Amino acid sequence: MNSQEEVRDFIVNGHNVYLKHLSLDCVIFGYHDHQLKVLLLKNKGGAWSLAGGFIKIEEPLQDAAARILKERTGLDKLFLQQFHTFGLPNRSIRTDEEIKNLSAIAKAPIKKGHWLLERTLSLGYYAVTEYSKVTPIPDYFSEGCEWWETDNLPEMFFDHKEIAIEALKALRLQIYHQPIGFNLLPEKFTLPEIHDLYETILGKKLDRRNFPKKLLALGLIKKLDEQKKIGAHRSPYLYKFDKRRYDRALKEGIVLAF
Amino acid sequence: MNSQEEVRDFIVNGHNVYLKHLSLDCVIFGYHDHQLKVLLLKNKGGAWSLAGGFIKIEEPLQDAAARILKERTGLDKLFLQQFHTFGLPNRSIRTDEEIKNLSAIAKAPIKKGHWLLERTLSLGYYAVTEYSKVTPIPDYFSEGCEWWETDNLPEMFFDHKEIAIEALKALRLQIYHQPIGFNLLPEKFTLPEIHDLYETILGKKLDRRNFPKKLLALGLIKKLDEQKKIGAHRSPYLYKFDKRRYDRALKEGIVLAF
Lengths: 258, 258
What we know:
By secondary structure, the first copy, chain A, is an alpha+beta fold. Chain A is 31% helix and 26% strand. In chain A, strands 1, 2, 3, 4, 5, 6 and 7 form a seven-stranded mixed β-sheet that branches. In chain A, strands 8-9 form a two-stranded antiparallel ribbon.
């Protein structure tokens, strides 16, 4: 949405376009150089929130997730993964001030029974990107987008902070069963680079020896006959993902323990 | 629901009681003696389905899952775990015959716009029980309940077969991160017994030596100074779960690889 008129139409007529009782929130993790961050939008009202929206009446969920992320942040081509549906009965209760703001935009009082005041569950989706390579663009509802450190999140709109924390837990479990890194590392990388990626996402230390052994044993990465020049006495070997095995592992799953 | 009159009221007035667009389906796995089965209900129409229902307007999801399971099968006190929300736009399209049946019970034609004809997403929940210890009771909609082998499921209502298959995948991932077995094994058990439980759920062979080592290393099980008498020359040691560590592992998660 790009204008107040579009927002008015959304408030007044949205129930003819979107499924009632259901929203969808995207938790976008950004990895770069020892850091894992999460993308938050600053609403014009001042609250921090996830990139969320509503599902169209006939829209597949995966399409809804991609559209909402694109509309709210300009980001696309991310693999969004559903991880949990949040449904506490009181999770979406709006404050009097929020209702007043909605009424002002709608130019009519928003009352009990209005679709935006009903109990709304949220389908949580997450994705991981390399945050130095993307530039999120705030939409009409937001005055800005910012990457926040995952262990230092601000207070957030509705239960969005809990959704972000649960997404991080889901990502940390996923990493044991699906390969990660193809879009987060350079095409050729050193073992310390992939080791750092996994340590950063998991938020814990991994064994320097066991870790690469496992990835090599699964055939996910292969050693190249090429070294990276870091200094006079440091030239670690480069590795790359075996794309065929990586894709198969994505589909069939793996079991890792480091 | 126990009578045709209650069903009529549900069809005609259910939209005042339940959230539109949302249902909840329970996949109940039963483990017993080398076998993993799943509980299906046979609808009076003849179709096999999961134990499903709708969420009340103000009802917490966990309460809804427990209530629906109890209403549909009589089972309770199972730990139901949400695993995925199913939302293909066409997943809940009813056949002409189903609509005719609904109309007959409602004593009025069910038409476009009726709450039971709208797109409905389903929140999937699963639980595991020891099936020789429970007796499911069919409700008014069903003519029976049966335990089916997970690798030999019949054709099912809507997308219930896909939901059951996805639940099994979720259970198989969960077992690497949460302990299992406390309610599925006798209080004192042998290593072959717990080994069999894990193999049956995972549907694959596990190393005879590594497997118990991991459980012991995590402190989940402990060896008792007591042996089981199986025959003149077979008296394996008995083990039991360390309940404190087991509960902590449930809460904090573990990482297993066998």
